[in-house]
Each structure stands twice: as C-alpha cells, then as structure tokens.
Amino acid sequence: MLPLLLTILWMISLLAAGHALLSKRDPRAALGWIITCLALPGVGALLYLLLGVNRIRTRARELQEQGQGMHWLHVNQPPHPADLKQFPTSSTSQALITLSDSVTRRPLLYGNKVTVLHNGEQAYPAMLAAINAAKDSVFLSSYIIKPDAVGLQFATALTAAAERGLDVRVLIDAYGELYSFGKIRRHFKNTKVQTAVFLPLTLPQSLYFNLRNHRKLLVVDHTVSFTGGMNIRQKHLANNSDPRRVIDIHFQLEGPVCAQLRDAFMEDWHFATGSKRKPRDWPSSPVVGSACCRGISAGPNEQHEKLNWLLIGAMSCAKSHIRIMTPYFIPNRAQLAAINAASLRGVRVDILLPEKNNLPYVAWASSAYLFELLELNTHIFFQPPPFVHSKLLLVDDEYALVGSANLDPRSLRLNFEFNVEIFDHPTVAELIGHFDRARSNSREISLEEVDQRSLPLRLRDSFCKLFSPYL
After folding, report:
1. For strand 137-142 and strand 167-173, is the pairing parallel, antiparallel, or unpaired?
2. Taking the model in full, what pTM does it have?
C-alpha cells in the first residue's frame, strides 16, 4: 500500500513540477517550485497548488469575459477616443501613446478635466462635496478608510447618500482594514450602504494575504471621480500636529475617463462579492475639457506586468527630463537600466525620495540601489519630513503618470493598483512646478555620501535588499 501511495505522490509532484516548468515566466521561480515539488513529494505539490498557481488571474479573466458586450465602451457610452489632432505632435508623445495602446486594455480618451488636489485639506472637501451632491451613485474603494474624524465624515456622507436612494458601494481591503483598531464597516451596519471586503482574511482567501487592493477610487454619478495615492484618514491632513502626518497628492477627474475608473471599480466589486456582472446602460460622461487620459489597472490579475512596461517605455521615450517622486523606491534591473540609459543619453533624471521613511526597512533596501544610479549622473534628492507619500512620473513637459502605484516590486507585481496617464500641457506644467518646488526644498545626495556609509549600515542595507521582491 505504501509503495502505491508514494508512486501516486511522485506522479502528482511530477505533474506540478511540469506545470511550473511550462507556466512560470521567471526561471528562478520555476526552478524554485520544481525543486520544492520534487524534494517534498505530495507536500510540495500541495504548496504549489495553494501558493504557486495564480487563480486570481483566472478569476479576473472570467469576470472580464462576463463583461464582454456590456463593457463601458460598448454600452450607451460615446467613447470620445482621442485622435492625433488632439495631441502634441512630438515624438515623445506619439511613442508613449503607441506603447500604451499596445499594452493596456482601455483606450486613451479626449475631453477630460484634471484638478490637482494637495493633501487632505484640498482632497477631502472636494470628495465629500461630490458625495453630498450625488444624484445616482457613489462607488468608493480605498486601501485604508480609518474610522477617525475624517473617516467618520465620509461614513456620514455615504450613509446619507444611500438614504436618498442612491446606489452606494464601499469596497474595503481586508489587510488595509487592520491599520486601525476599529473597522469602518461597523458604521455602515443597518444602513443602505453596500459593503464588500477584498480578499478577506479567511480561508481560502487568506492564502492571498500578500495580494492587496491598493487602489484609491471614488466615482460619483459617472461624471466626476477621484484617484491618486491618498487613503482616507486624518493623517493625510498636512496641517495636522501629528508628527506622523503624511504629505500626498490626489486628482479629481471629470469627463469620459470617469467610465474607466467605474469599470475598474466594478471589476473589483464583482471579484470581491463573487457576483456575476449584468448588463447595464451606464449614463454617458460629457466632454468637459481638453485633457487626454487613460485609466490603467495593474495587478496579479492582469496578463502582463503592464505598469512595469509603461514605466520602462516612458523613460526610454524621454528626450530632455525625467522626474520621479515616490515614497518607496526599489527598482528592478530593467528599471535601473532604463534610468541609466536615459542619463547616458543626456536626459536629466531627478528622483525625489523621503529623507525619513515610515517603513525603515524599505528605505534601507532602497539605499543599496542608489550608488548604481549616482555613478551615472542621476540626481537623487531627500525630501525633509513630514513623510511624502506622493507618486509622480513626469516625462519631458508632456506626460504624467499618476495614481496609487509606488516604484517597487510590491506595487508592480503583488498589489492591485490603478494609475492614470495624462497628456495635458497645463496639468503637466502644474505638476512640474510642484515637483521642482519640492526639489528646491530637498537635499541632494552624492555618490561619496552613499559610499561612505559604515560597514554595518551597508550590511544592513544589502541584507534588506535580499527581500526587496516582498517589501
């Protein structure tokens, strides 16, 4: 009986190893799973089934297939696609448009208006005003909604909107909910607000605890929406006396691109609830401005690491200047190569990082990469406290990529993120001004400063670098 059992376990392990060999694109991941399956007959195959097979992608593809024929672009929605006459004619813009058209699944749309909102002082009143004025629906997704003074303002506004008969839905990430002792969901109990939890920490969903919904989306009446890097909590008020307060930037979008944010929300909603997508004639979003925008969903549910491709492609298209602002900077080898290649081509590259990070181990891992950029003339600056959580990629004076993703492996491989690319001279000029003012108040670091770190610090940083794919 035992030989038969061992034979069955070996056959299962061989099948699992063969699946890893054929399906894993990273040879290091494939080799690791093959060794695990063969070294631990049966157990290794079970681990591979639970942790190595991306069922998130399979489930997401099913939802996208359900949506075929009822997608926002095909149901009673004038798409307002952008044509070449509505763009700057520079080679930078055209190359970026061609790249994005090839790797994303949503079109670039003309007719939008973009408003830049700094910190909670500007973002939260605008978001609450939109909710209070809503007439049809309010869809909110946020990694963190803390039930503090700010979070409770949102809970009150959302509950009131639902009581007016609106379609109000709130999607909460299960891990992000742990950032506070209380849960915002409790304030929606016995109300008409619909709530759902993204990958709750219960079996079997808890097996995906490392895959988080980091998106920040608010869509109101299909005509106004908000996205960026800002969670909903008092810590994002810059005038707050809290020493842990956070500086951040958010964006209000009006126009046809709102349908793309709504589409991303609905995909997440049906994924989290397990419900089937049904046909619905969504109201159209009118043309309200001249900005060309595209919403980009990224995450382990997507077929490719499209955000990584876009970052590398954007840096490769730059002709004069690349500006990067990110709180967490752990570049992969391809991104390092793209930045260095741009510097060698004569493109000025400026990178703004927080001087004091809220996640020290991420900053330590980041420090281990800096010398590779500094020795090829990339300019790196440390922004003084408070902690700056803003995420921006600006290319020349024509292109902006904004949203929830950081420049690190967690955002680009593990998290569900949402970004928006913007072709709009006034908006890009405003963001360049914001970036340059922040740079002027920051301290530039040198290659000598990085090289002069003590041996214990270099060992610490290099040790953290080993775990950079998971930080």
Report:
1. parallel
2. 0.87
